[in-house]
Design brief:
This protein is α+β, with helices and mostly antiparallel strands and 183 residues long. The chain contains 3 helices and 9 strands. Helix 2 packs antiparallel against helix 3.
């Protein structure tokens, strides 16, 4: 594990209606979808103006069936996904004072259902990438207090100049460049 830092060019999707009702697996690799089920999440707030709203097919866990098969008698409101590791999803719920656990693989089709979901979509093109370059991260964190893991941060001209000076990696400064990190 470690820090992966990116600069992405983010754009609105041309003709977003072409994605309406389609399965996410049929989208091009650079088209990203984020759930709008509970509104725009904080990590996507900076790019909210670039999201195109669509309705698309999505595969989700059938929590009612999982509850019936694995957690019957447990407090329904306590059931949660506690960890995702590769294909494994770990679930748990409370039954009295005890915790009941189950591990399911996302290939277990009998526990997966399709639904229509509100999504915000955008196009993402990778401009730059660094592995474990904490100096780049410090530039961003020093200049933007919203910076956090998996949050899109608008790249300012000042940040750009400082990053280029640090790493020597030149890329064209333009509108709609965003810093993104994953660790």
């Amino acid at each position: 594990m470690g820090l992966d830092s990116y600069i992405f060019k983010i754009r609105k999707v041309n003709n977003p209606e072409q994605y309406d009702g389609k399965d996410r697996q049929s989208w091009p690799d650079n088209t990203i979808g984020v759930s709008l089920e509970n509104g725009v999440q904080p990590e996507f707030a900076a790019i909210a103006h670039l999201l195109s709203k669509i309705s698309t097919k999505e595969k989700v866990w059938d929590l009612d069936k999982i509850y019936k098969d694995y957690f019957d008698g447990c407090d329904r409101d306590s059931m949660q996904i506690t960890m995702i590791y590769g294909k494994e999803h770990h679930f748990r719920a409370k039954k009295g004072g005890e915790t009941v656990s189950a591990v399911l693989e996302n290939t277990q089709e009998e526990y997966i259902k399709e639904r229509m979901a509100a999504m915000g979509i955008f196009e993402e093109t990778r401009i730059a990438y660094w592995r474990k370059d904490y100096d780049i991260q410090r530039v961003i964190y020093r200049n933007d207090n919203r910076a956090d893991n998996t949050t899109y941060i608008p790249l300012t001209r000042e940040m750009y100049d400082e990053i280029v000076k640090l790493c020597g990696k030149r890329f064209e400064f333009e509108e709609d460049l965003y810093y993104f990190e994953w660790y």
